[in-house]
Design brief:
- The protein has 128 residues and is an all-alpha fold.
- The chain folds into 2 domains: 1-30; 32-126, Cytochrome Bc1 Complex, Chain D, domain 2 (Orthogonal Bundle), CATH 1.10.760.10.
- 55% of the residues lie in helices and 0% in strands.
- It is built from 6 helices and no strands.
């Protein structure tokens, strides 16, 4: 009987552990507000991300018109890329996903670090 009780408590502890792991993964996946702000700062920075050279962005000044206004009307970044990781991959090397993309390869040519690309992706992901 004790073995049966021990087995049930072990299963219960394992279940609680999985729930806690899932909860911590959910918290980890949510971008911090400072990541979104850092991404916005990079996107607006004419010497770094320089997204405004080609795109209109909410609150941006002197936007370009080479690329679409962001966010695009009728489609979200979530719909276009399904995950932030895919958006980061696109920002890093757009031509790997869209061969005729007319966009700088920020990661491929080390214009921005992976962390900076993640911050810009967090910012873009937050746009509604």
């Amino acid at each position: 009987m004790n073995a049966h009780r021990h087995n049930r408590s072990g299963v219960h502890a394992g279940f609680i552990g999985m729930v806690m792991l899932a909860a911590s993964a959910t918290v980890w996946a949510a971008p911090a507000v400072n990541n979104i702000e850092a991404g916005r700062a990079l996107a607006f920075n004419r010497a770094q991300g320089n997204c405004l050279a080609c795109h209109a962005l909410p609150g941006g000044s002197q936007p370009g018109n080479v690329g679409p206004a962001l966010p695009m009307k009728g489609v979200t970044f979530q719909q276009m890329f399904q995950s932030k990781e895919k958006l980061v991959a696109f920002l890093s090397d757009p031509e790997s996903l869209f061969p005729y993309a007319n966009m700088p390869e920020f990661g491929k040519y080390k214009v921005l670090t992976h962390t900076q690309l993640e911050q810009i992706a967090d910012y873009l992901w937050s746009l509604k």
